[in-house]
Amino acid sequence: MAAADVVISFMLLVSIYGILSLGLNVKYGHTGLLDFGHVGFYLIGAYTAALFVLGPDDPTDFTAYIIGLGNVPVVGTWPVAIAAATLLAGVIGGLVALPTIRLREDYLAITVLGVSVIFQRVIQSETWLANGPDALRGYSPPLQDLFPLAMETLVGPAMFGLIVAVVWGIATGALGRLRGSDSRLPLDGVYTVTTFGLTRLRRRTDALGSATTVSAAAGAVAGLLTFALLVAVDPLLSLGAVVSLYTWFVALVAVTHHYGGLGRREGLFGIALGTGLLVALLPLPLIDSVGLKSALALALLGALVAAYYLGVTRVDWLADVKLAVVGVGALWFVALWYFLLPILGPLGDGDVGGALNILVQNVVWLLGFGGDTGIGYAVVLVGELTVNVDYARFQLAAFVLFLAGLYYVLELAVRSPFGRVLRAVRNDETVVQSLGKDPFVYKVQTMVLGSALGGFAGALWAMYAQGLTFTTFAPRVTFITLLIMFLGGAGNNKGMILGAAIFWAFQQATTQLASFFPPAVRVNIQAFRLVVVGVLFLLVLYYVPEGLLGREEGTSSEVDG
Amino acid sequence: MVAETGLLNAVVTGVVTGSIVALGATGLALVYDIAEVPNFAHGDLLTLGAYAALLVNKPDTVPLFDLLSTGPQQVGVAGAAVLFVLSAAGVLGTVYHLGGARALKGSWWGFDAPDGVALAVHGAVAALVGAAVVLGAPAFPAALLFAFVLLGAVVPLLESLIFRKFREKDVELALMLIVSLAVAFVVRFGIQTIFGGQIRYYTVETTVPFFGGVLDFTLAKFFDFFLVDGGLTLAIMESRGDALRPLLVMSYSWLELLVVVVATGAVAYAAHRRRRGTAGVVGPRLAATLSGLAVLALGGAVLQGGGTGVPEAAIAATRVRTSPLRLSIIVLALLMMSALHYLLQATTLGKAMRATSDNRKLAMVRGINTRQVMMSVWIISGLFAAIGGVMLGFLFSSITINLGFNLLLAMFAGVILGGISVYGAILGSYVVGLAMEVGIFAIPGLSATYRIPVAFVVLLLVLLVKPEGIVGGS
């Protein structure tokens, strides 16, 4: 699997868990309700969505479920399924809240944890409901049969146009936010070009002039242009390359914007950390003996952590940037893994063309390469490339659009008067009461909203996983969501996305490491990485309890201004 | 006539379940009440205890430690030395937690003793326990003892390494909850990192000599109660394959029953009156219960008529299906609770604990060593968790990574029902245990996976009516 495909499945998971964590953040981060049973609503969303799109139950086969609405027109489609999952999770969230919400926070946490376990047990024991302890399968995600896209018809270009519209719109939106920073790059010029001149709209003062509208419009234009070009001529590879390069450019701008403040030695220390991590992991693929390679890798990792610890405690200039250097190191490590490691093999054999080929595949991440179907290209120096657009890319565009949309709506909600009341409930209920507002009502509304987001994430999970088992919905999911929330910063919506990204980056990286071990000890390795996750969580809670991004307090001046 | 299992069977099973829950819930409640940590890791401490006992019971299956093993359930000299050192270190470590080197010199004894004497006593106890574990291995009691002393030393480390750090930062209760959840994660998957994913079990010799014959204490026994015209008949039977073998038949006439019941009531009432107003170890209610039970047992033994066999016809009959192992869990739980009761009521440390529970600030002002109290709470929590976990592993005869976590919700239900106090938690645990088993029995079509949900429904109902739990008033 190419590195780009790994990253795409990673981003799908980040979207799902980002939405799940946004839901928990509404409950705990904004309102202060500690919901240890968040996974219960995720479960309800997943199973509801699956039952909406499954065909009617066939009594003769081995699976059994209460109802399958897949054959009903309109009702049995994914949009309705997602909407129903969201609604039902929200309603049940409200019902759970009614008796529990008045309890002390620790009692609340334990009782809702119990409620989520009850949901799980119901799925497990009631075989008629959703196939009991066995997996619920037999449905497919929407529009999957269109992929890989055929560019000869109109449908193919239209779908690719949609994907480009989403990617372009989000990249442009990000660029628009970064534009204000002082940078040596000509950001304003690039922004004018990539918005197709629509940036003139910003001069207007009404809703049309907002940055979000401009990015959305730019995305739409890009999508339409893609569609037109694909129908007229056949430049799939070039289009993919242009859009991918644009996203890399925005990512680069974001990184330099974020870490531009670091001096040269700080940056070099970060790069040294990232390289050190790579070196520490080298024994795993190179040495055969399990005991020896784990001991060596652990020793090297320990040395790296010790060096970092000594650095941030003894050296003054490092102490101020201790988190930033880790960020630089992680990015450097990811960059090495993404760009350098895959081409080392061909380069070692002296196959420069093969190496370039792989590099192109990873840079042009928007397109899938290889496979039997697709459009063949022959490129100078790089060689043969078979290009296609697979389903994962489409799903990614959809999921990221959902995440971005929900994030945007929640940001609006947080800054609204409603959001301010929620924060007041979290800080001091008596104040809320004295102002004539009933905290109980707001808490129930919060539970409904947060649980609905959990249900939405569950529906996306059902779509992504294409099969549901009750074991997936263990209390562990709530734990991971809590970790994501505290990592990013409770009360900070942007932090949820960052936290989900960090958690899943760690998961993906360590999953790959487990493949260097014989199957017999893989369970132990998987368990060990969860121990590391737990220890990291404790360190986060102790050293950075506010999270990496900290709490974002929307003050009234900010809202008014 | 053949008796069927009924409500009485569910009640007895419920008491067994309640005893296991209580073994866990006692430690959970102590820590919750005094150290103010709603410890989500407590279930995993039970798991830790269950796995620790494997070092003694089945050393050949423990990764790394199996290198020192010389055969099935056998350890060589080096392995024995490791076990000895670990158990002795467990004892000394437990004492050390009570106040460092000063505790080893007897500062926690409650009376003045020369340093040398205290050191010698602690050393001797440690050596004795170590020797008992090594000589007793791989038998079950030795494994139980090993887990007991090991967890007594290991569990307080959670307090001194993690929870105290957070408490010093004055974090909210919600954050403490999340910290304990992270600790639970680390403990559970730390165990799995070492032991892997496969299911384990203890290998124990389950037959013991009994009245000249042999008794398998894990095999089910049937206690059949028959109400016949003449009175009550109790038949104890053992099942071997399809055949039922009566072990003991006891029958009582109506008159005898009446005498026993009246005598029990009278003695209990007298004991209650006699102890009323005293605040000693044996209070009025405990005195009444103990003396009543004694009279009941004595009367039952003395008046049992000759076994006439299982009656042919009966007005009503019910069967209780249980095993000596299950009954011994009840006894063990009661013994542990009696020891804790004694500690709380009759020792200086216990008084300090109760005072800290009532009002921590006031206790500090009055010069109570709250840090020592805190550590002793964690030690007791660890000791109870070890017993609970090992007994749970033995009862289920399958030790998995989720062994304790599966029981955590029941324990929390018990603790919250009891309003977060030790005595309340014991009561709450039995309520939860009975609710689980009677609920499964009484509601038709409810499968056994619904045990925990039933406990939670009870908890939710109680919280709806009394948000502070049954016992808690303040």
From TrEMBL, chain A:
Domain of life of the source: Archaea
Pfam families: BPD_transp_2 (PF02653)
Record GO cellular component, one term: plasma membrane
Residues annotated as transmembrane: 6-24, 36-55, 75-98, 107-123, 154-175, 207-230, 236-255, 267-286, 292-311, 323-343, 363-382, 394-410, 444-465, 477-506, 526-544
The entry's keywords: Cell membrane, Membrane, Transmembrane, Transmembrane helix
Localization in the cell: Cell membrane
Protein name: Branched-chain amino acid ABC transporter permease
Species name: Haloplanus ruber
Membrane topology qualifier: Multi-pass membrane protein
Xref: InterPro entries: ABC_transp_permease (IPR001851), LivM-like (IPR043428)
CDD domains: TM_PBP1_LivM_like
Automatic annotation (TrEMBL), chain B:
Cellular component terms per the entry's GO annotation: plasma membrane
Protein name: Branched-chain amino acid ABC transporter permease
GO biological process, one term: amino acid transport
Location, primary (coarse class): membrane
Membrane topology: Multi-pass membrane protein
InterPro entries listed in its UniProt record: ABC_transp_permease (IPR001851), BCAA_transport_permease (IPR052157)
Alphabetic keyword roster: Amino-acid transport, Cell inner membrane, Cell membrane, Membrane, Transmembrane, Transmembrane helix, Transport
Family matches, as Pfam families: BPD_transp_2
Compartments where located: Cell membrane
Protein family: Belongs to the binding-protein-dependent transport system permease family. LivHM subfamily.
Transmembrane segments: 6-32, 76-96, 117-137, 143-163, 175-195, 252-271, 283-305, 325-344, 373-396, 408-436, 448-465
Species annotation: Haloplanus ruber
Domain of life: Archaea
